[in-house]
Amino acid sequence: MTWSLRTPFTNARRRAWARRARQPGELLYVAIGDSAAQGVGARRIDASYVGLLAARLQRLTGRTVRVVNLSRYGARLDDALERQLPQLAQLEPDLVTVAIGANDMVAHDAERFVDEFERLLAALPPHAIVADLPCFHFGDRERDAVHASRAIADLVRARGLAFAPLHRVTERRRGWGSWPEFAWDQFHPSAIGYRVWESAFAGALAKRVRALPSAS
To answer: What is the pTM of this model?
Structure first.
């Protein structure tokens, strides 16, 4: 791995999530994703969308939650397939969220994207909640993200999995008034922006909670 100014931060963030994974909980929440799932852009992991969803799950169920965040900074679909899914297969989560594919828009290959996403979905538990891509707001990446998000929505629904409309909720936040929702790099969400991301999962999470078995 090439060292950069990001490396100390990303290493620290990874260690923070590793410590969080060692905390016990009655329910297990596993996240698959990229730097957004790591919470890059927010100062604390609890302010990331994964942290917010864990808190929502605990609040709705009244049960403690262990979080295993398998995401990786810069991850693309191939990383999810090769590194994250094998780790997921060793766990028995009560909740799984997936938000990945934005980094694949750097050099988008539509056919490969659909093939890899289908393979990802095939390996998920039936209660997984899968998001499409966030809105890039302008340029070629947004054009590709629109097409990719439509494909994701179709694939997720064909599999009968729960869908989180991330592109739609982030697309609503256009214009200069949305700047507080972005971090200093104007790419990753801020703590405010992660609350928007969390809202994309909220409806599906509430349904998942209703389907959870009662505590013994």
So the answer is: 0.90
